[in-house]
Automatic annotation (TrEMBL):
Biased composition (Low complexity): 69-86
PANTHER family noted in UniProt: SPHINGOMYELINASE C 1, SPHINGOMYELINASE FAMILY MEMBER
EC number from the UniProt entry: 3.1.4.12
Leader sequence residues: none
Stated name of the protein: Sphingomyelin phosphodiesterase
Length: 598
């Protein structure tokens, strides 16, 4: 995956990195020093330090029992300095090239002339159409400090066998950096998509042409790869002339061009992943992205593609939909805005656990597109459908469990919807957004609306976002039927915050609160009917006290300042230990009426 580097080039790279350490802000130096250390040992280094394993319930980092700690402090410190919602993949942060990033990008108008004067041809609706899928799969190099392995191999297996990647003509993957995970993904897809490119930026071999600024000293490939159901007649690797800034500087970022022959009809697809919105870049990389979009536009002009053939640009363009930069991108690339359907965001910290892990305070954004060139054949309509599938089974790595395929959601590009087109959100599981109503006082358990790690209380008669929780039962092969057993209970409002109990001194001992990435590993849900949990099921909770070495039931406290707080306390069951499980009756988002069918 990482190109071999000659000693002089390696020395230059390290010198540049040391220079960045001197120039970077004091609060950045720690992260850059970690990176420098990792580079020194890059060939042999592996980082399994993804997340700490489940800790005991004691939390010595927070001696205040009234304000339980939000998370393991080591985890909190692991959040990288680069708080970039558009690039949750700090691929070896690099020194910013101030001379380059401060330059104004080239004008939207190209110095190169469109070689064809023909008027773009509108494709007849009876003509052959192309279905394209784009997905940023978040498979970072596993030797990156503090990021580690987010279950790359397991996710690669699940992605390749999932329904959402089936029945397409072409798929563009971004952030397929990791060699082993990429091999698993491509090998498993080969039966349906036998025509495949290499990943951009890895080697100059296996391409019909190598264009742009291939940097042999780059430590990381560009992460973009294309697979096709139909023959690829031409494949070109283009490394951006603007190498980017911040973390992207260390990657051979660029785009892949393929010419597809679908039953005699030619289609041209460009798969790209553009400069991330990095805080180490001038203006968050706007100038760099503009230069990269110019590369794409000028390449299309230079190809002299017939006007009656469709040209598509697909990928994670790292531009927020609706922003000023978005409209500049549309103009600069000379593309039409598609008809947008589906979920509102492709990177969503409110619904996606991986996206929320490092960036819980960032707002969701739409970053991924499949666009049609205005200079070439125009379909009667072009739709972009953002979809949010999840794995049917959970994956677990280093104590972290999830059902997400990636931190981004995929986007489909197509002319007309058909019977296989997703029409509703795929993200809600049966046991998501569950509420627990106390049999004693009729009130719902809720998380603190003002503090993510505040105490849990059964103190509201109204269902809100804070009374909703996600149930997760590890090892359960049938997620549609949770029975009695060990569970992790996650706050639906604050992803990655799980029920745990406090044991740090004071009257708050044994009180429950949501703790970041640290669920009580002995919490049990007991269904008194001994069947699958359903709406209205009567349940109790039981947990293990690591101090007294015994099990107790969770109860709603009934006196004093701690009235209605949830405690691990009782050794028998009464009304105060019984809860009724309530499903969320809100229907999932459905966009069937927004789709255009033939």
């Amino acid at each position: 995956m990482i190109n071999k580097i000659t000693k002089p080039k390696l020395l230059i790279g390290y010198c540049l990195l040391l220079l960045s350490l001197i120039r970077c802000l004091p609060e950045k130096k720690s992260s850059y020093m970690d990176l420098f250390t990792s580079l020194l040992f890059l060939p042999n280094q592996t980082n399994n330090d993804f997340v700490n394993s489940v800790s005991i319930n004691n939390d010595p980092e927070n001696p205040n029992p009234v304000n339980p700690a939000p998370a393991n402090n080591n985890q909190a410190n692991a959040v990288p300095v680069n708080n970039d919602p558009e690039n949750p993949n700090p691929v070896n942060p690099a020194p910013v090239n101030n001379n380059q990033t401060n330059e104004k990008p080239a004008n939207t108008g190209s110095m190169k002339k469109d070689p064809s004067n023909n008027i773009p041809t509108k494709v007849n609706s009876k003509n052959i159409e192309l279905k394209v899928l784009s997905h940023n799969v978040f498979m970072l190099p596993t030797n990156l400090p503090r990021w580690g392995n987010w279950g790359h191999d397991e996710r690669a297996k699940r992605i390749s066998k999932s329904d959402y990647v089936k029945n397409q003509d072409v798929i563009v993957f971004e952030e397929a950096f990791d060699t082993n995970a990429r091999k698993i993904l491509l090998d498993n897809l080969r039966e349906e998509y036998p025509y495949q490119t290499d990943v951009v930026g890895r080697t100059k071999k296996n391409w019909d042409a190598n264009l742009g600024n291939f940097r042999s000293y780059s430590l990381i490939n560009g992460g973009v790869v294309i697979v096709s159901k139909w023959p690829i007649e031409e494949r070109v690797q283009y490394i951006f002339n603007d190498p980017g800034c911040g973390a992207d500087w260390f990657t051979n970022r660029g785009f892949v061009y393929v010419k597809i022959n679908k039953e005699g009809k030619r289609f041209h697809v460009i798969g790209t992943h553009n400069q991330s919105q990095d805080h180490n870049c001038s203006n968050l990389g706007v100038f760099n992205r503009a230069n990269q979009f110019n590369d794409i536009r000028d390449f299309i002009y230079s190809k002299n593609i017939p006007k009656d053939e469709t040209v598509l640009i697909a990928g994670d363009l790292n531009v927020i939909k609706g922003s000023n930069e978005y409209f500049d991108m549309i103009s600069r690339l000379n593309v039409n805005e598609p008809k947008y359907v589906g979920i509102p965001y492709t990177w969503d910290t409110k619904t996606n656990e991986i996206a929320a892990y490092y960036y819980e305070n960032e707002e969701p954004v739409y970053l991924d597109y499949i666009l049609v060139s205005k200079s070439h054949a125009q379909p009667p309509v072009w739709q972009n459908l953002a979809y949010d599938p999840i794995s049917k089974q959970n994956w677990t790595v280093s104590g972290y469990t999830s059902d997400e395929f990636s931190d981004h959601y995929p986007v489909y590009g197509f002319v007309y919807a058909d019977s296989l087109t997703p029409t509703k959100s795929g993200h809600k599981r049966k046991y998501d957004q569950i509420s627990f109503q106390s049999a004693a006082n009729g009130k719902f358990i809720q998380a603190d609306p003002n503090k993510k790690n505040g105490w849990l209380k059964a103190d509201t008669t109204i269902k809100t976002d804070f009374t909703k929780f996600n149930l997760l039962q590890e090892g359960n092969l049938d997620p549609s039927c949770i029975k009695s057993g060990l569970v992790r209970i996650e706050s639906s409002h604050s992803l990655n915050y799980f029920w745990n109990w406090w044991l740090g001194g004071g009257s708050g001992n044994y009180g429950y609160y949501p703790k970041f990435n640290d669920a009580s590993n002995q919490l049990e849900i007991i269904n008194l009917s001994e069947k699958c949990l359903e709406d209205g099921s009567k349940i109790v909770f039981k947990d293990y006290d690591t101090y007294s070495k015994d099990h107790y039931y969770l109860t709603v406290w009934d006196k004093g300042n701690w009235n209605e707080h949830i405690y691990l306390w009782k050794d028998s069951v009464s009304q105060r230990e019984i809860f009724y499980l309530r499903f969320n009756s809100t229907p999932v988002k459905n966009w069937n009426m927004d789709l255009i069918y033939r």
